[in-house]
Write a structure and sequence with these properties.
Blueprint lengths: L6 H16 L8 H12 L4 E4 L7 E5 L8 E6 L26 H20 L7 E6 L7 H7 L2 H4 L4 E12 L3 E2 L3 E4 L1 E10 L3 E2 L9 H19 L6 E9 L6 E2 L2 E10 L2 H21 L3 E6 L6 E3 L1 H13 L4 E2 L19 E9 L19 H12 L2
Parallel strand pairs: 3-4, 3-5, 5-16, 6-15
Antiparallel strand pairs: 1-2, 2-4, 6-16, 7-14, 8-12, 8-13, 9-11, 10-12
Helix pairs in contact: 1-3, 3-9, 6-7, 8-9
The structure holds nickel (II) ion.
The site of nickel (II) ion has 4 residues, from loops.
C-alpha cells in the first residue's frame, strides 16, 4: 500500500491540529490534549490504548504480524507560556499559552501515522508492532523522564525508536536527515547567592548578594570563551536574575537561572566543572555562599550511522525531498530514550516557502500544515 494519508485522514488531523492549537496546555497540564488524543485513537481500528499510570500523555499500540522489529514513534504534546500574536482562525484562546514550538503539529502527525499504520495492519502489511508515545512536558525537558519512570519500557519493548521536530528554517515538507550529534546535551541550573541583608548605607554591616551575582554572571562568560574548544559548539546563558528591594535595603539573597549546552557530552562535562568552581569560589570571594540546584542532565540527540540508514530508507519509501540544516544547540528530551532503545530524530521543514523564518518559541511562530502529510507519512514509513 502507499504510505500516505487519504484526503479524509488529512482533513481529520488538520482539524485536530487546529483544535489543539486553539486550546494549548502547559507542560504537565495537557489534560484536554490527552483526552483529545485518546478520542482520536479510539476510532482508529486496531489501536489499543495501554494503561500507562500518568496524568497526561498517551501510550498506544498497533499490532503487526509479529515478524518485524517493534518500533516506537514519539511525539510531544505540550505548549509554552507565551502570548500568541500570529493571527489565524485557530489562534490560542488560552491567555498566555501558545503552541509556539509546534508540538500540536507533532501530535497531529503521529495521529495521522496511526491512521496509515492501522490500514497497513488491516491489510496484513505491518510486520512488527508499533508503539505510539504521545509525550507530555517536553518543554523544560521533564516529560521523557516521566514516561520512563511511569514504566513505558515495562509495557512496550521497542527495538527502534523515531521522533521528529518541525523545523522552521526549512521549507515545508522537506526532511533533514543528519548523522551524528543533532541537538545539544544540556544542563539547566539555579544558583542561590546568599549574603546578609541590611541597610544600604552600612556596607560594613552587611554582605550584598547583588554585587556578588553580578561578578558571578560576568565570570561565567569565560566558561565558553576561555575553557571550551572553540571548534566544538557550546553555549552558556544566564536567563534570569531575581532579587532586590526598594531603594535602601540590601537583600539576603539573589537567584540566578541558567543553562549550559554542548553538542558533545565531554564538552558539557567540562563546562559544568567550570560553572561549579566559578560560582562557588566567586561567591566565597565576595563573602557570600552559593547553592547550586542542578536539573537533570539531558544528553545530546545523536543519530547513529545504523539508525541513519533506516531513516534514509523511510524517507526514500515516501520519496520526500531532502534538506540540509546545521545541528542546533536547542535540546530535546527525546535524547533520554536513547539509553533504552536505538533512536533517530528527524527535522521536518514547516515554513511556507517565500515567507520569512519565524523561529520556534516566538509569538508569531506557525507551521505550514501541508507538511503534516510528509510528517505523518514519514512516521509511518519509519515503522514499516
Ligand atoms: Ni519543541
Amino acid at each position: 500500500m502507499e504510505l500516505k494519508l487519504t484526503e479524509q485522514e488529512y482533513q481529520a488531523i488538520l482539524d485536530v491540529k487546529h483544535d489543539l492549537h486553539m486550546h494549548p496546555e502547559l507542560s504537565g497540564e495537557e489534560v484536554r490534549t490527552t483526552q483529545k488524543i485518546k478520542e482520536c485513537l479510539q476510532v482508529v481500528p486496531g489501536v489499543e490504548i495501554l494503561p500507562l499510570p500518568v496524568k497526561t500523555g498517551v501510550l498506544a499500540r498497533i499490532k503487526g504480524r509479529g515478524d518485524g522489529p517493534e518500533v516506537m514513534l514519539r511525539a510531544d504534546i505540550d505548549a509554552l507560556p507565551q502570548t500568541e500574536l500570529y493571527e489565524s482562525p485557530w489562534k490560542s484562546v488560552n491567555a498566555g499559552v501558545m503552541h509556539a514550538c509546534g508540538h500540536d503539529f507533532h501530535t497531529a502527525s503521529l495521529l495521522g501515522a496511526a491512521m496509515i499504520l492501522s490500514r497497513a495492519a488491516q491489510s496484513g502489511e505491518l510486520k512488527g508492532d508499533v508503539d505510539l508515545v504521545f509525550q507530555p512536558a517536553e518543554e523544560g525537558t521533564t516529560g521523557a523522564r516521566r514516561m520512563i519512570d511511569a514504566g513505558i519500557f515495562e509495557m512496550i519493548h521497542p527495538d527502534l525508536c523515531f521522533g521528529m521536530h518541525n523545523w522552521p528554517s526549512v521549507p515545508a515538507g522537506q526532511v533533514v536527515l543528519r548523522k551524528g550529534a543533532l541537538m545539544s546535551a544540556k544542563r539547566n541550573f539555579t544558583v542561590r547567592i546568599i549574603g546578609h541583608g541590611g541597610h544600604g548605607s552600612m556596607p560594613h554591616l552587611n554582605v550584598d548578594p547583588i554585587v556578588c551575582a553580578a561578578a558571578v554572571i560576568e565570570a561565567l562568560q569565560t566558561v565558553i570563551s576561555r575553557n571550551m574548544n572553540p571548534l566544538h559548539p557550546a553555549v552558556l546563558s544566564v536567563n534570569m536574575i531575581h532579587g532586590g528591594s526598594p531603594v535602601n535595603l540590601v537583600v539576603d539573597e539573589v537567584e540566578l537561572r541558567a543553562t549550559v549546552r554542548s553538542l558533545s557530552e565531554e564538552g558539557l562535562t567540562r563546562a559544568l566543572e567550570r560553572v561549579e568552581t566559578i560560582v562557588v569560589k566567586t561567591a566565597e570571594a565576595y563573602e557570600c555562599r552559593a547553592e547550586i540546584a542542578w536539573k537533570e542532565r539531558i544528553p545530546a540527540v545523536i543519530n547513529t550511522e545504523e539508525m541513519y540508514r533506516l531513516a534514509v530508507r523511510a524517507a526514500d519509501a515516501i520519496s520526500c525531498e531532502r534538506a540540509d540544516a546545521p545541528p542546533s544547540l536547542a535540546s530535546e528530551d527525546f535524547a533520554l530514550y536513547r539509553a533504552c532503545v536505538p533512536s533517530f530524530f528527524y527535522w521536518i521543514g514547516s515554513r511556507t516557502e517565500g515567507e520569512q523564518i519565524e523561529e520556534l518559541h516566538r509569538p508569531n511562530f506557525h507551521t505550514d500544515d501541508r507538511a503534516l502529510r510528509t510528517a505523518a507519512a514519514l512516521y509511518a514509513a519509519s515503522a514499516m
